[in-house]
Amino acid sequence: MKAALPHFAGKDLFIFKYIFLPYTLSINFVIFETTYVSNFMFFFLVSAITIIAFTIFYTICGGVAVIMKNRFSGKNQAVIQLGIIIITALLLSALLLSLLFKFYESFPYFNFQSSDERFLWTFFVLGIGLIFLAFVHEGAARHEAWKKNRFETEQLRAVYQRSRLEGLRSQVNPHFLFNSLNSLSSLISDDGDKAELFLDEMTKVYRYMLRNETDTLVTLSEELKFLQSYYYLLQTRYGAGLQIEVDIEDSVSQKRIAPLTFQTIIENAFTFNSISKFNPLLISISNKKDELIFKHNIQQKTLTTELDRESALDNLISKYQLISAEGAKVEETNEHRTIRIPLLTDEKQVVL
What we know:
The chain is of the alpha+beta class. It has 2 domains: 12-150, no CATH class; 172-348, Heat Shock Protein 90. Helix content is 62%, strand content 10%. The strands form 2 sheets. The chain has a 5-stranded mixed β-sheet, with helices on one face. The longest helix is centred in the middle third of the chain and has 56 residues, at 116-171. 21% of the residues are buried.
């Protein structure tokens, strides 16, 4: 089993094995001078004691560093974090050297005589090394954070590009366009006023789709305005078979979500579920604090052709996982599916 050292950065074990231990072994030359290599047994015994002592020391310092890293995690607190880590390491090293010196003095075998000069010189050499290692650890941690942020940005960019592609597909979706035009054609022959209203709402839907094709986030109020027009088109086609209830507090209207979130979730729902006036598809949209909740009943229909519409929803979920710490969540039972979407603020907006 591998020894689990406190994880300050991904290079902790590497630094310990290839920098810290060799350096601490060299401290023995400062303590014992040439006596350290006078014979093999002496060399082996002192080295073993040093490795054990400094492994414990490194583990304790690592634990303190991790605590300070979590406690002072702000961008402007790096100096405080590093300062406390260095001061703590120096105090612990003074304690460790005191114990080592007393230990060596208590055994005649080592023939060791402690002195203030030797102690201060050893502490100085060890302290310089500890300060250097503190900066090495911090540099490794910052490099890892930079790599992680770059990786997440690239992931987000890839997901965003897929989302844009899905958005473009929905914009030119021949089925949606055909059904909309078919409904418009029927209205023109039956009711000119309704046809004019339908055309107006259809224009709003496509204008919103095209305008927000490149946006990262939009306000909830904008998305709700889109929903009104989008729902009008769907209701004209499905009638009482599709019912959408919205109960969202005004206080969150300026919160932000990914554009076309409503369309993606609603389209996913009516694509995979049967719809009729006797068994309507019921979709409720509400909020609980800073969380948007979509819930609809499940009455799965048999598909005659292979569809890949879940990919649009999967891309939406992946996007929220990257732009929000909370991420989006999907919960499903035999009767209902619930999708929880975080409502974001300006500070959480991600600019690609």
